[in-house]
Design a protein that fits this description.
CATH architecture of the largest domain: 3-Layer(aba) Sandwich
Distance between the termini: 84 Å
Shape: elongated
CATH class of the largest domain: Alpha Beta
Strand order of the largest sheet: 4-3-5-6
Structural class: alpha/beta
Radius of gyration: 22 Å
Largest sheet: 4 strands, parallel
């Protein structure tokens, strides 16, 4: 029996009544966390798209969920959303972790997080698995990522040094 009928004769149902267990936190108050990440501010549109994909996927499966997102390199653990995710995984608050792609969590070290999820009996769902890259392709991707990160750090540190030098020169000229 529908909860409501529209003026056009459409039947509307309350999914929470039809599938009550799907719209509550999982066993023991655990929930689904969807995680999105991009590397740089110019990829904000991609971050929003990831959020939309995660929202549609989790909603389609009827899961009660929360989205955590980060803007930063996938090479380190110093991101607020990732730290929150790790804290909640360790605390046992997470039933399921949903990602759009495997590398959205971390470029290196994701396997460690997945192993902790396995120990904590957390289901890991990766929406876009794609084809498994060959060993050579994976190695080439890793090397390119490392070169990119170190190049960015090198040029960033040079830029910082240049700014400091310009400030010192301005100070010397003004005195």
């Amino acid at each position: 029996m529908p909860d409501e009928r529209t003026a056009g004769g459409q039947r509307r149902y309350d999914l929470a009544k039809l599938r009550p267990n799907a719209f509550h936190a999982g066993p023991g108050g655990r929930t689904t966390i969807a995680y999105a990440r991009v590397s740089s501010p110019d990829q904000k549109a991609d971050l929003e798209r990831q959020g939309q994909v995660l929202t549609m996927f989790c909603s389609a499966n009827g899961w009660s969920f929360e989205i955590l997102s980060d803007l930063g390199s996938g090479m380190h653990f110093h991101k607020r959303g990732l730290r929150t995710l790790l804290d909640r995984i360790i605390a046992g608050d997470v039933e399921r972790l949903v990602l759009t792609h495997r590398d959205r969590l971390l470029r290196f070290g994701a396997e460690l997080v997945f192993a902790v999820c396995e120990i904590k009996e957390i289901e890991v769902v990766i929406i876009n698995q794609g084809e498994e890259p060959s060993f050579e392709e994976e190695l080439a991707q890793d090397v390119l990522e490392i070169i990119t990160v170190f190049s960015a750090r090198l040029y960033g540190s040079r830029n910082h040094r240049n700014k400091q030098m310009l400030e010192k020169l301005k100070g010397a000229v003004e005195t």
